[in-house]
Design goal:
Helix content: 55-70%
Radius of gyration: 18 Å
Structural class: mainly alpha
Number of helices: 6
Largest sheet: none
Number of strands: 0
Length: 178
């Protein structure tokens, strides 16, 4: 089983576990669930979420798709991780946050549409990684640019959509550059 599908299976299982509300043994104690599980409210702003997760993950996916050479197995793995991170972040984006406009955005159907588009593009990146398809990954990168720019145009036209900050690429993690 590939890393992509193994990771997706773990995430799906964790999500189902949380939705069903089973205890550690899978037993609900013989009691039916009477209320929907609540989510943990966001403790940061949408701006912080965008800079820390969306910008970082999208940049790595776009960069990988725009390489003029074959990607290493390690690069594919990192892009897979950023793709899954971006998919999870799409859900977080839909919840709102602590910024002054965040709850209004989260209540907006247009904001929710953009969050769904972000999730769709992220899952397309997961599929491109599973196939190790650099052409598809490049297409995903272009779709990410369109998604980010479209959302910014609608909600934050004065904010940049890329390049705010990126964590450094770390050496010493088994790459040829070490």
């Amino acid at each position: 089983m590939s890393n992509v599908f193994r990771t997706a299976s773990v995430l799906t299982g964790a999500a189902l576990f949380g939705v069903v509300g089973c205890g550690p043994s899978g037993d609900t104690g013989g009691q039916a669930q009477t209320s929907a599980p609540s989510h943990l409210p966001m403790s940061i702003s949408q701006d912080a979420l965008m800079v820390a997760l969306v910008d970082q993950s999208a940049h790595e996916i776009w960069d990988g798709g725009n390489q003029e050479r074959d990607l290493t197995d390690r690069e594919w793995l990192l892009i897979e991780q950023h793709s899954l991170q971006l998919a999870a972040t799409a859900t977080l984006v839909s919840l709102g946050g602590t910024g002054p406009a965040d709850q209004g955005w989260a209540a907006s159907p247009a904001w929710q549409d953009w969050a769904r588009k972000l999730n769709t593009v992220a899952m397309s990146a997961v599929q491109a990684v599973a196939a190790k398809d650099r052409v598809a990954l490049r297409s995903v990168g272009d779709a990410l640019v369109e998604t980010c720019e479209g959302c910014h145009e609608a909600f934050k036209p004065d904010a940049p959509t890329e390049g705010i900050t990126h964590q450094p690429h770390y050496h010493g993690a088994g790459t040829a550059e070490d």
